[in-house]
Amino acid sequence: MTRIAFTIFGDAQPQGSTRAFVPAGWKRAILTSANPKLKSWRQLVTEAANVAIARYPEPDRSLMLDGVRLSIAFYMPRPKSLKKTRTAHTTKPDIDKLVRAICDALSQVVFRDDSQVCELVTMKHYAAEGKPPRVEVVVEATAGVLPLTRHQPLFEQVM
Description:
Layout: E1 3-9, E2 18-21, E3 30-33, H1 38-54, E4 68-76, H2 95-106, E5 117-126, E6 134-141
Parallel strand pairs: 4-5
Antiparallel strand pairs: 1-6, 2-3, 4-6
């Protein structure tokens, strides 16, 4: 498998900081996530990737083992009070935390580890009026793939 593309419908969830604490009398730390919706979001991402992988013939369903280019377009829920001309999503959640949740969900599903991501192209916009919030993901093996140029479109303009 050298390229896989899929869409996840729903509100993208950020992967915040993990906190650890040791309760009184315990010897082990308990890890908690700052976002309780993160686990179900990562499951949605993993399911969408698995459905896309299932479209490939059996011999092509292996993990990507070399460097990968990860392209992600986040289309966030659009508030009703927002002007129609505004497309850039400039409020929380931060784009890097959104990307971290996607990368961790795809580890051991599409690629071995998120450290393999050597090219990252991402954007965060509001979904167009009448369109659902979603995330569009493209993962490509970098071997034999030319680097992006300024004039090469990454995502279609379907906001």
